[in-house]
Each structure stands twice: as structure tokens, then as C-alpha cells.
Write a structure and sequence with these properties.
252 residues, Arc Repressor Mutant, subunit A, Alpha-Beta Plaits, 3 domains, four-stranded antiparallel β-sheet, 9 helices, 10 strands, 44% helix, globular
Amino acid sequence: MAGHSKWANIKRQKAVVDAKRAKTFTQLSRAIIVAARSGIPDPAGNFQLRTAIDKAKAAGIPNDNIERAIAKGAGTFGGDNNSLEAIRYEGYGPGGVAILVEALTDNRNRTAADLRAAFSKNGGNLGEMGCVSWMFSQKGVCTVEGVVDEEQLLEASLEGGAESYEMTEAEIAEVFSAVEDLETLNKTLNEKSFQVTDTELRWIPSNSVEVTDADQARSLLKLIDTLEGLDDVQNVTSNFEMSESLMALSIV
């Protein structure tokens, strides 16, 4: 199974076990701040903000925290959050695996130093901008649960402008679209009574690297876990393929 899909599933399982609440709250609050700053601070007219708020509510973030994050993004709350900027970093993991890291930071030097240390201590190296991003294309992704009729999903997806879909688990599908069609796809699937549990922009690899060595697998999964644990990191995407038995090393 593709690393980006299976790893997402494992992360969801680990989140339940580890309950990394503070980290999750920080990530989602920052996403709200940036979304509110990049468009109007009204979720009704800002799809990015609406999606960020939905994720925050699903994670159990109190409404007061959400409203405060919106106010910070709109510049009506105060503080130094206006200095947050979105940056993408690129590098290689063990076995030549390509890794993209999306961060929100108020200090580029600190973030770069943290990332460089994480890569070097776990068998990888932080590269220059553009060194691996050419292997990825950004897509809109809707995760749909409770799929019992693939024909109905296909019809609704096509109507919403989807490019493809993939059944990742029993009754769970990921529906892919062009970035600009994600809002339409999300709206159409909901109107067709599908259970959309997540909506996001994701970097999809055009090629993959198969990892078969146990030591490399352990180092790679530790690297990704370390990167995701950094305060400034929002998302980590890679292009590895790995068996489920090796993937299980991440939760041992």
C-alpha cells in the first residue's frame, strides 16, 4: 500500500493512543490563523477557513479557542501571530525516500535548524528547495467513510469534478481533484449524503521508492515521526512504499 495512505491511517491510530492533544491544538489553531489571514475571516465565504474550523471542532478544540484563532488571523486580537508564514522544506530520508515538510513558523532559522537536526539524526538530509518537489503534485482530497456503493460514489465524484478515487480500506475512499475543484467536490459529496470526514490539500507522489530493509524502515518511520513532532511542522509527505509488517515497526 502506498506510504502516504497507509501512514495516514497509522497516524490516526497513534493519535488515539498517544493523545497528542497540545500538538494537535497548536497545529489546527495555526491553520485557522493562516486561513483567516489569507482570506476573509468569515467561514461562510472562506473555504480554507471553514475546513480548518471543521478539523478543529472534530479534534475537540473549544469554540473560544477557535474564535480567538480567527481573531488573531484577522488582526483583531493582538499578539505576534501575524508573523507566521507558511514554508515548504524538502529533503531525503533513508533509502533515498523523498520527503516534503510543510511548516508554519515565526522564525525560519529555528525551524530550519530543528528540521536539519531531525533529518541528520535519523539517516536523512535536508535539501534545497525544489530538490524533491518535482516528484509531487498537489491535489485536493476528500476522505469518505461508509461507502457501500462504489457506483454511487463514482457518479457523485465525477459530478463534483473529481479526477479519481481510491478505496483505502473497507468502506473508506479517498477522492482526488484538482486544487481549484476541491470546494465543489466537497459540497457535491455532502449534498449526495456521503460522509466526508476530512478535506485537505495533499502532495501526491508521481513515483515511489520501495523500502524493504527493516533497519531502513525503522529509521525512516522514526524520522517522519520526529518531524511530525516538531512544533512548527503541519504536514509531512513522503513517496515510500512499505509492507504492513514493516509499517508496524512504527508503533512498536
